Amino acid sequence: MNLAGRRSSLLQVYKTLLQVYGPQYWWPAETPFEVIVGAILTQNTAWKNVEKATNALRNHGLVSFQELLHVSVEDLAPVIRSSGYYNQKAAKLKAFCAHVGNHWQGNLEAFLEQDLHQLRSELMQLRGIGPETADSIALYAAEKPSFVVDVYTHRVFFRHGWVPEQLSYDDLRGFFMDCLPRDVSLFKEYHALLVRVGHLHCRRQPFCTGCPLESFGPLQQAG
DNA sequence: GGCCAGGACACCA
DNA sequence: TGGTGTCATGGC
Known about the structure:
globular; DNA-binding; Endonuclease III, domain 1; 2 domains; 0% strand; mainly alpha
């Protein structure tokens, strides 16, 4: 299958999910900074626990960049306790704020306005920000066309035989980036829809029941 | 009480 | 470069 064929198939998968579930309107946050906080807090954590932590942050008056910049890790950690790994995540949030404070004079907007490649590599040099978190921030906070690959992206595509089990993050991301038009709205919805279908039909158990992609035809494998 | 959740990283061979 | 342990709470 050529590139045009793969693009067509990927778009068909997207249209099927969109038809079944409707637009998801992600990311569930009010501001770019809240997106960044959520992206770090949700690492290997159920979103419900992240919501508890973000509510606690609001109750403690810790919702803005400046407020998090000046709170200590020791004071921050117990506030985000419900999101799990709270000591690590407190350090990660502080490391991000310190970086923007020290290297961008606290100008978060300017930081996010960088070229995608620059932004992504700068994010990934920070403590606790790996490829998925960097892509989430680039796509949902900075509005750059960077496809987000998460556990559901891989699981859904692997279960349907569209990608091999051992496929690196960058290879799977490249599979989407190369085939799809670089459209921010498309990338947002596609990622959100894959999380939705993954939540409903593609958990860790080795089966996918009732998945709307069940009868979908083959795609050329990536990798 | 066990499994799982919108990862990242240090360490080791 | 690939495998493994660690970080940790909370819902089901």
